[in-house]
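Troubleshooting entry. Yesterday's outputs looked truncated, so today I'm pasting the complete records for two proteins to confirm everything comes through intact. If either block looks cut off, that's the bug. Protein one:
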Amino acid sequence: MEVELLSSMDKQDDQNEKAQLKLCGEKAVKRKDYRGASNFYSQAIEMDPTDATLYSNRSLCHLQMTEAEAALFDAEFCIQLRPEWIKGYYRKGAALMLLKKHEKACDAFMAGLKLEPGNAEMEKALREAIEAMKKHHVATKNFKPSD
């Protein structure tokens, strides 16, 4: 009985610490201290590697620091944990845009729109990805290698 009680108290302490780390991360984001926020989210992830919100938040930090590969990794992990949550697809699309993988970004934004049709933020991101894809296509079409 005492062991169960101690175990329950430990779990509660872990949840409280995770919540504190997440809160510190959110405050750091508000200060635009994305490196610090990323560190807080990483510590929270160590305590609970199944919390998709933490991966989404850390993905945002990586995006703000133009660390596209890390942002993509966290976004994909977020999607694995919560495939029904639109935010993971948005982060994935944003990371792919940073990587100039516009077609794949469109796919990510479309996947998000399938979950939440009419989401204005996702629709705007999709339009921007399509526009970037068009510009890239025109730029490569007009490129003439020298003989």
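Protein two, checking that the full record survives here as well:
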Amino acid sequence: MPSMGVTMSFEHLLAPGHIGTLKLRNRIIMAPMGDCLSNVDGTVSDNQAAYFEARARGGAGLLLVGSVSVSYPYGSFDERQTAASDDIYLPGLIDLTTRVHRHGARIAAQITHNGQMSLLDTANGRPMLVPAPPKAPKPDHISTMVTEGEVAAMMWAYTQPTSQLSYQAATESDLAWVVERFVDTSERCQRAGFDGVELHAGHGYLIDEFLTPSMNTRTDGWGGAVENRARLLVDILRAIRARLGPEFPLWIRINAVEHHKTDGETFEEQLRVIELAIEAGIDAVHLTAYASTDVATGPTDGYAPHRYVKDAVGSLTEYARILRSRVAVPVITFGRMEPDEAEEVLAEGKADFIVMGRKLLADPDLPNKLIAGRSDDIRPCIYQYRCIGNIFVRDSVHCVGNAQTGREHDLAVGPAASPRSVLVIGGGPAGLETARVLSQAGHAVTLWEAGTRLGGMLVHAGAADPLLERYLGWLIRQAEQNGVSFTLAKSVTVDDVRAAAFDEVVVATGATWGRPPLPGADLAHVFTVPELGAWLRDDGDQVGARVAVIGGGKAGLSLADLCHKRGRTVSVIEPTHVFAPELGIPGRFRLVADAEANGIDLVARATVTGIGEATVQVRVDESDRSIAADTVIIASGASPAPGLADALRAAGIHAHVAGDCHQLARIEGANLDAAAIALSLS
């Protein structure tokens, strides 16, 4: 995102707006994301309430609570799914809406029945309610790139003692029950203080399963023609209106299209569905997209776009523009937009409201920072996809770049009761984040860095991934603004620390990089990542035309992409079957798919046996292979460097540790360490 604090006013994005009778202070809506932050009985947890309150305090106009179950535990995907299907859930829901309202935001519940994704039913031996039994998905080879632990987590519903995978084709009485569950839940949400209800009619859940020809193969009055397939949605909307009246804000989230399906939803048919929904009384349309589960990149082609594409045929904003020209109700859209892009979409009349998900996970205060003209202070999303990916593996929503996301209650770091002088040793991501958090809490922080510039490995990583370069710039700016004192080119000894006499010491000296014990690892054309620093920042002849990258983590794939963009032929050698395991699954699949589309040779299950002058020898399964390479980049092999911390402790000096110096945990681990240290000193 460019610097916009001076040049942009965001007059459209920050303007008030209406959805029916609901008045919103701006056009920024927090995306409805299944967060799995509820308690295991579906009640609102302390962390969940604090999570939403943080976004309300941060200035968003409307918060959407995603995937609220209308029939919990039936028709639900997880035991930690938010429920509103019974009055026992009212106390937590009332507390949630009250906490949001006290900050001037509005809150709506996105209500759903999960249909063929009701994994909690499968885990408990109940059939999943569907329009018709589904066809089995056809996973592509990318979808096999998951770790054993991830497989176990993803298969939890099928491995319980009570598990049974079965389907119930909905009968007339089933559908009458579904309608009543949606109506009853809507009324309860109104009583709980929610300002509106969004029906989830997309993303492959029950209502959407009736809408799409790919799932709805019925031949009765609920299938066939688009009007029949839309009947369940329309019946629910009419019944809600009959119960709650015409004034209560009510709208739908619906797919514009289904990608990668020859028999999926088309935009023209979905326009007809939307027309029927408007006739049934909705106040707005929240336009989304979905993709076949046969394609592993589905999430990043649909509801979690990997990139913002302006004006492209098939982009969400283009669909929104067309829809807005045909309807008289507000249109809500999204699509990995930076604030300046969102402002442009609104200014050009393509939509009325912008939904932000990952942006508000990374920085809950984004709206307030725009209002204050401080766009450069917005913490950037670095798109590691752990937020979405966590839900795939039964974790809760968290953020690599913001340790407090999903932990707002547990990691509530406030102003320090007794501010202290703190020395942070190391200016990489862990040191900078620790300095930022501690200085923000009111401690007097000094940071010593052995190198001549701040950033540590982020300097190199940022050269290959501009998102990380932007994140590093943000870290440095925030620490500077908080008054952190920096000293560069300072090697640190135990005596230095003792003489400085700080109240607290944090060691964040990072990892060391070595070469593997391989024949040829010491050849002149073999480099570790730090040794390539100059080339990473400025292309030159240090790297030849044919590159072999040893290590298929996120760093290895990013380096491979950079080499490809600079005209090299690239192979990536990975000893396991999983590339970039540190990324959330959707981001991992996208990165691998893009690498393959760019012609990068991904060599999995490969053990390097030696490096020659122009080749790398590997053993793949039971076969030997020679990979041509003028340059070899070792993108793995980092190890913790606890030496200074150990020496300080041996000398009787208490030292906190953060980041890779004590365990390889990358940005996410560094940020968690920083938050934990700040909490311990609060």
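Both blocks look complete. Sanity check on protein two: The CA atoms of residues 114 and 616 lie 49 Å apart.
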